Amino acid sequence: MRTYALDTGGRTHHHDRVADHAYDVIVVGARCAGSPLALLLARQGHRVLLVDRATFPSDTVSTHVIHPPGAAALARWGLLDQVVATGCPPVGRYSFDFGPIALAGAPGSAESPYAYAPRRTLLDKILVDAAAAAGAEVREGFTVEEVLVADGRVTGIRGRDDSGAAVEERARVVVGADGRNSVVAKTVQPAVYEEQAPLTVGYYSYWSGLPTDTFEAYSRPGRGWAVCPTNDGLTLVIGGWPHAELAEHRNDVEATLLAMFDTSPAFAERIRSAKREERLVGTSVPNYFRTPYGPGWALVGDAGYSRDFITAQGITDAFLDAEACARALDTALAGAAPYAEALAGYQTGRDARAMPVYQMTLQIASLRPPDPQMIQLVSAMAGNQDAMDAFARLNSGVTSPTEFFAPDNIGGILSNR
């Protein structure tokens, strides 16, 4: 087991483990960012404590689509087969219905061709168990009441375990993987940038008798919805409208959804012959980036970066974020680079990858009618399979918006090359 200390100046030096640092890293939050981070750090030989107030399996509000880059991460960790074994169907086709024009293409690469949308009760349990199997100490039902700070540096956590007993633990680094309302972020008050208030409000549930093998996205002025198959023969359906209309429709959500579905008569017919099996769940999310590190702390997943759910990038982002954060922490803990330098690299890489998708997500979440240039582009893509595949890969996160919207690429599509 490797043991190191990180001083507040970001320099790293080796020494024997001291009594007040029982762990190299404490990860707060054991879902799609925290469990993979704990798994990867434990595999790298670090002593990791992973805590979550939930017990698993348990559900959480989520669109739970894993795009092909996220599925590729699961494969790298050796966990994709377990997700497939739950019976969650692979999705190798994305369709986009804009009303007058529809596109459909393959969202993945040859190495990772499929998306999946496993229920969170199944996915999160697989992730937590994998972290434990890798050697992380996992404590479920653990409520963090306080993040400990000494001399401007985070040093550990204080909370209550599943029996209610008070517990205090120390670590060289405490990572907040505990979502938008992160207790770690609330303590350290990181800088926030590229902030945007919630743009949409969405409601989702699960229907039987609505078969599909496709991730279906429907776009209408001021409205949008999506459909994806999940476990147990059920289909996830999520629909939304501008956040400004939240109060207006709060008391007639189902009627508002059905009226929206009527703008696609073919889909309306399908869903009216299906059966909703669970209650409708609603949510809206803020949009922001937070500086994801400081003395003794780091943020990963939604704790560090949140975007509207309309592009369903949350889980995939959390997976890729966990990998990048694990690399940075391992570099720092192993003494290969100063802590501040390694984690600054993590932030720079995260923002370079995520910012173009973030900006695209905000544009889509505005739910405004497409401008003439976008209408021209979508019209040019229709019937051009290579272009439609490229558009699917843009929406799945395989291709960056920077690459897709490069003048040469757009010019090629418009000239139908």
From TrEMBL:
The keyword NAD applies. Residues 23-359 form the FAD-binding domain. InterPro entries: FAD-bd (IPR002938), FAD/NAD-bd_sf (IPR036188), PheA/TfdB_FAD_monoxygenase (IPR050631). The keyword Transmembrane helix does not apply. Transmembrane segments: none annotated. Keywords: NAD, Oxidoreductase. This is 2-polyprenyl-6-methoxyphenol hydroxylase-like FAD-dependent oxidoreductase.
